[in-house]
Structure formats: C-alpha cells, structure tokens
From TrEMBL:
Residues 336-402 form the Bacterial phospholipase C C-terminal domain. It holds the Pfam family PLipase_C_C. The lineage of its organism: Bacteria, Bacillati, Actinomycetota, Actinomycetes, Kitasatosporales. The keyword Transmembrane applies. Residues 78-188 form the Thioester domain. This is TQXA domain-containing protein.
Length: 465
C-alpha cells in the first residue's frame, strides 16, 4: 500500500522496472455476475490507482482511491471499490460488466439507504466534481492549494467504505480526511433512484410460434438514441421488429427511452421454422452509480465489486436472437442474482402451444403451460460459485454461471504477494492484500539506489511512510 501524489505512480513503476523487481498479489473471491442478463458495457481493469493511505479502524492502513478501466473501444471509465472485504489484482486485466444494484451487495436487504448515500457521494465528489478548488470550499478545506486529486480520490473512497462496508475509514492526509467528513456528514441527503443502464436488452433469446409476435424483449437505456440492425434472418426479410403497439420500429429509437420498452419480432403465419438476430447499440456515457461486477465465473477468478464514478462516451452493443416454429412447447429461461433472497432467480417460460416440462438443476422440475412463466429460487451460499443448467423440450439447454456476493464480507488478513511474470502490480485495495506491496516498494527503493530515493522524496509534504 502506498500513498501517491502527483506523478508518484509513474515514478514507483520506473523504480521497479529499473531494479527488476516484480510484484504480484492474491486474488480473492468477488461479486456475483449479472445473472445471465444481456447488456451493459464491459471493461478491463488497468494497473493504475489514484490513491492515498486510509486508516481503517480495527484493521489498519489500506491504500484506497480511484480505479481506471478501459472498454473495448478504448473509452475510459473510473470506479471506486464497494467491496472492501475482497481483493483485486489490478494487473490481472480482469473483465468487468455493468450490472444492476440487485446483483451486488447494494441489493441486499436493508441496503437502500446505503446505496442512496453512496450515489450522492459519487455525484458530489471527485471525479464528477472535477473543480478541486470548488470541492475544497464545500468540504471546508482551508488551504485549497494543498488539496490534490489524490486527496480527493482517497477522501471519496473512505466515505464510500463508510456506507458500502460499514467501516470507519479515515484518510491519513488532512485534506482528504476533511473531504471524507463532509461526504458522510449532514450534507449527504442521499439519492434514491438507481441509475438506468447504459443499454440493457433482455432476455438474450426467445422462441415463438409462426404467425405470432415473438417477445417481449425488454429494452432500457440512458442513451438518447438506440440503433438496431437485423442479421442472420432465415425468413428472407419477412420478419419485422415492432413495438408493443405492433408498429414497425425501424432502424432506431430516439430518446428518452421509456422504462421497460417492449420489442417484438412479428413473424408472418406460414413462415418456416427459423430465426433472426438483432444487434442494438448506443453511444453514450455510462451513468454514474452503475455497479461493475467481475466477470469471472469461479471463486478463484472473481474480484471485488466496483461502482462507477465517471465515464467517457463509449459504444455499447447487445445482441439478441428470436426463433420460431409452427407448433410445440417452446421453452425459454432467464436468470438474475437476487441479493434480497441470497439466491439466483431463474424464470422459465413457454411461448409455444403445448405444455412443457422444464428441468432446473440444481433446483426442481416445473411444468409450464403455453404462454406462462414460472420462477424458481436457487439458493447459493455467500461467496460461492453457482452453475445452473436449464433443459426442456426441443433440445433446449441454457446455463447460468457466476459467484454470489451479497453481503459485506469480513476483511481477510494480509497476504504476502507472489512474484508475477507480467510486471509490477501498482495498487491493491481491500481484502488486506496491500502489505506486500509496501514491502516490495521498500525493496525496490533499496535496489534502485540513492537516485530513486531522491525522486520519491520529492513527492512533497503528503508523502508519508
């Protein structure tokens, strides 16, 4: 764990590279995935952290601050940790996906107030509020010249941990501590409404009968325009994308997009069995406050849960598929993590004209009547991986995998990091995994010699060993 000011991150990296020192870290389990829902931006965590030292009452010092992630189209998003009890290896290039609060610890019973307080912090602190002088004035910081971006990041992270993990977290730096006190104080009245997804279109596939409208596919988006493109259409162009009113949608919908907009594929009667795919896409900034969950599907490769603090505009595509046939039982299945129930909620449907028996493993069998749905809760242990398989008539098979993380976890003890062949790990927060980072940095300074020590000493008054 180290406190960075100005260009301290790049200087430390240079020292490590020059000395040949390689630092790794342990990866703890992390948050549940998006439960099979379709949509949301995906991003890869980067090996940088704008941070400061934070004292956690009863635990000790940790390094906390603002993470950077990069999307597939190279847009930048910034996140804070809302999952102190789990670790992250930020040099692992871990994949994350935008997800709803319900699939995260913020969706557990009684957490509505915590989520509202965190969202207020994100909207009223750095980097959403990028004018440091103005932010210092609101926080009552006497000398704004001493208030840096690192202070702002550390103060914001400490304030978030106060609500996300119920920790008394206080930055070591005076200015950062002042910001933290302001953010958790009376000014924080909370913001109750969960931000809308950048783009969500669910489920990812649905079957139907020829001569009907296959759907609904439910669309939500914060963007001002959603574009649509059909592909792989076996009907030869007969199938049309329509709204709930049956009117053709065309190539785009202009915003604002109504909540839970329903879309269907109109399949003319007599159309031979087949399918069509559709890609929906938006170009937008992801709304502040959206949760980001690790996409790893095992307890080993899942990592701590994040929450969005700021985003460049990025392109978000989602692909869904509709299929049809003349008759028969036509099963479908969706799943979502429900932290209220500490379970995965599996919903199975039948859009055919005959009843069908659908197996949910582990779980139970259900007989679904034509046009009906049934919901089954599959209990999952906290921090445990799940692998749910749904099977039904017409060779239907669908699998949902992830790791459930619905509760504030007890922080793990510090773990000595192991060497990594891929280069230095620049930061680790939460999970008690940062002690080895400090040891590695100390070793690098000794090996690097006096010049490196001199460079680090020039970080200024806030650099404290």
């Amino acid at each position: 764990m180290f406190h960075t000011k100005g260009r301290a991150v790049s200087r430390i990296a240079a020292v490590m590279a020059a000395s040949g020192l390689v630092v790794g870290g342990s990866v703890a389990t992390a948050a549940a995935d998006n439960g099979g829902s379709t949509g949301g931006v995906t991003a890869t965590v980067q090996p940088t952290l704008l941070s400061g030292k934070i004292d956690i009452e009863g635990i000790g010092e940790r390094d906390g601050g603002l993470f950077t992630m990069v999307t597939s189209d190279q847009a930048t998003i910034r996140t804070y940790c809302i999952d102190f009890g789990h670790g992250i290896d930020i040099k692992s290039e871990a994949k994350y996906r935008e997800s709803p609060w319900a699939a995260s610890p913020l969706g557990a019973k009684g957490r509505e107030g915590d989520a509202a307080k965190i969202l207020w912090i994100l909207e009223n602190s750095y980097p959403k509020q990028s004018d440091l002088k103005a932010l210092a004035a609101k926080a009552g910081i006497a000398d704004a010249a001493k208030f840096t971006a690192e202070d702002a990041a550390a103060g914001t992270q400490a304030a978030i941990w106060n609500f996300s993990d119920h920790l008394k977290a206080t930055p070591k730096d005076d200015e950062a501590a002042a910001l933290r006190n302001y953010l958790v104080g009376p000014a924080n009245v909370g913001i109750k409404n969960e931000p809308t997804a950048s783009l969500s279109l669910t489920p990812d596939s649905l079957p139907g009968l020829s001569g009907t409208k296959v759907g609904p596919f439910t669309l939500n988006s914060s963007a001002d325009k959603v574009n649509f493109a059909l592909s792989d259409d076996t009907s030869g162009g007969k199938v049309k994308l329509v709204g709930k009113d049956g009117k053709a949608v065309g190539a785009a919908l202009n915003g604002p997009i109504a909540k839970d907009t329903q879309l269907f594929f109109d399949v003319p009667a007599g159309t031979a069995a087949g399918s069509v795919s559709m890609t929906a896409s938006v170009n937008t900034a992801v709304p502040t406050g959206r949760v980001f969950l690790s996409e790893g599907y095992t307890e080993k490769d899942h990592q701590q849960t994040m929450i969005l603090a700021g985003s460049d505009r990025t392109t978000v595509p989602v692909k869904v598929k509709a299929s049809w046939q003349p008759k028969g039982a036509l099963p479908s299945a969706t799943a979502e993590v429900s932290c209220v129930d500490n379970a995965v909620k599996v919903t199975v449907g039948n859009t055919g004209d005959q009843e069908g028996t659908i197996e949910i493993k582990p779980g139970k069998s259900v007989v679904v009547q034509p046009g009906k749905t049934e919901t089954v809760l599959v209990p999952v242990g906290e921090d445990k991986a799940y692998d749910i398989t749904v099977t039904g008539p017409n060779k239907f098979v669908k699998e949902f995998k992830g790791v459930l993380d619905c509760k504030v976890a007890t922080p793990t003890p510090s773990v000595k990091p192991s060497p990594s062949p891929t280069g230095p790990q620049l930061a680790t927060t939460g999970g008690g995994a940062g002690t080895g980072i400090m040891a590695g940095i100390a070793g690098a300074l000794v090996i690097g010699g006096g010049a490196a020590v001199y460079a680090l000493r020039r970080r200024g008054r806030h650099s404290r060993a």
